[in-house]
């Protein structure tokens, strides 16, 4: 009977899809790394989280592994060279979380533009003294320019939502041409200089790590808003905190962080910053579909088939 190790308990009908396989994983929550590594000696497949480091040690401890299914679209937690050296296939969860993540990205755009977090804290802290003409002025989106960095599945979905708000949408890609309905292609420098809202949807690669640094933030308008639902490492935390503290940006919103679950202390105290705990795909439907897509990939590979959600070489280097 094929043996499948899960590093965490997942929603969706994972057990049903993998009926006939021996499943090893926690009944609830997640196992620590040492616990799931110990299960790999006789495992044929591994289903893991984005927060799990899938490195050479994993493949050494799991000499019979044939496939690793990553419960995420991103796969920068995987050492692809080490996997390839062992002949292990890597799968991810594209498409099924696109709309949920785009919803969250646009929610953050609205929250930052209308200073919703500040308003809620004002009320909860007992500081609201009633309506006044000068209270928490925000930004109207209609007629503004939204700059999307990384116009892939999620970027395109955000662009569709932007049309309903009367936003002009521009986009910059990394390694791929921008070709999406309603999105005007521009160079990244032009996007940063002209966009009223900059929303990141790029993968984490050597080219995008630290992409939004002090120089990039300096190119942005002092009235602009930065939103990141991509990867925390795409943004320089200290540079963003500096920009917010100096009043260079109108606001920012982050759903991802470089060292999750830790958040840089300066971000916790930075003004006009909305923070959410990596909720991009956090709907019941999306999270269940992600688990089921991982399970189907594992079942297919162990049956000698090639599932459509294997990570292609171009995705590794894009």
Question: What this model shows, in words?
Answer:
With 318 residues, this protein is α/β, with parallel strands linked by helices. It has two domains: 3-94 and 284-317, 3-Layer(aba) Sandwich (Rossmann fold); 98-275, Rossmann fold (3-Layer(aba) Sandwich), CATH 3.40.50. 35% of the residues lie in helices and 15% in strands. The protein is built from 13 helices and twelve strands. The protein has a seven-stranded parallel beta sheet, with helices on both faces. β4 (67-71), α4 and β5 form a beta-alpha-beta unit. α5 packs across α7. The two termini are 37 Å apart. The mean pLDDT is 95.
Helix and strand content put the structural class at: alpha/beta
The backbone outline, from C-alpha atoms, is elongated
* Structural domains: how many: 2
Strand order of the largest sheet: 8-7-6-9-10-11-12
Q: What gyration radius follows from the Cα positions, in whole Å?
A: 21 Å
Could you name the ranges where pLDDT drops below 50 across 5 or more consecutive residues? Answer: none
How many individual β-strands?
12
Number of helices: 13
CATH evolutionary superfamily of the largest domain = NAD(P)-binding Rossmann-like Domain
What kind of sheet is the major sheet? Answer: 7 strands, parallel
Assembly category? single chain
The ordered string of helix (H) and strand (E) elements is EHEHEHEHEHHEHEEHEHEHEHEHH
For the record, the CATH class of the largest domain is Alpha Beta
Residue share in helices?
A: 25-40%
Task: Report the sheet-strand fraction.
Answer: 15-25%
Mean pLDDT: 95
Q: What is the straight-line distance between the termini?
A: 37 Å
CATH topology of the largest domain: Rossmann fold
CATH second-level architecture of the largest domain: 3-Layer(aba) Sandwich
């Amino acid at each position: 009977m094929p043996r499948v190790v899960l590093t965490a308990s997942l929603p969706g009908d994972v057990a049903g899809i993998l009926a006939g396989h021996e499943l090893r994983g926690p009944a609830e929550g997640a196992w620590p790394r040492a616990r799931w590594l110990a299960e790999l000696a006789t495992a044929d497949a591994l289903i893991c989280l984005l927060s799990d480091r899938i490195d050479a040690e994993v493949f050494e401890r799991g000499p019979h592994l044939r496939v690793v299914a990553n419960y995420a679209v991103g796969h920068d937690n995987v050492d692809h060279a080490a996997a390839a050296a062992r002949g292990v296939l890597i799968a991810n969860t594209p498409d099924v979380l696109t709309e949920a993540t785009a919803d969250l990205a646009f929610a953050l755009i609205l929250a930052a533009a209308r200073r919703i977090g500040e308003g809620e804290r004002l009320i909860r802290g007992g500081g609201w003294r009633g309506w006044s003409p000068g209270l928490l002025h925000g930004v109207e989106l209609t007629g503004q320019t939204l700059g999307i960095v990384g116009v892939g599945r999620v970027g395109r979905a955000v662009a569709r939502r932007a049309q309903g708000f009367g936003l002009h949408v521009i986009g910059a890609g990394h390694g791929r041409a921008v070709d999406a309905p309603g999105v005007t292609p521009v160079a990244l420098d032009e996007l940063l200089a002209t966009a009223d809202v900059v929303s990141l949807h790029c993968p984490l690669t050597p080219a995008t790590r630290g992409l939004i640094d002090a120089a990039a933030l300096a190119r942005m308008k002092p009235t602009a808003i930065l939103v990141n639902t991509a990867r925390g490492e795409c943004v320089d935390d200290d540079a963003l905190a500096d920009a917010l503290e100096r009043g260079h940006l109108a606001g920012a919103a982050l759903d991802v962080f470089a060292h999750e679950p830790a958040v840089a202390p300066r971000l916790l105290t930075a003004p006009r910053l909305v923070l959410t705990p990596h909720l991009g795909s956090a709907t019941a439907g999306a999270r269940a579909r992600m688990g089921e897509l991982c399970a189907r990939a594992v079942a297919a590979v162990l049956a000698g088939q090639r599932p459509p959600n294997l990570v292609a070489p171009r995705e590794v280097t894009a």
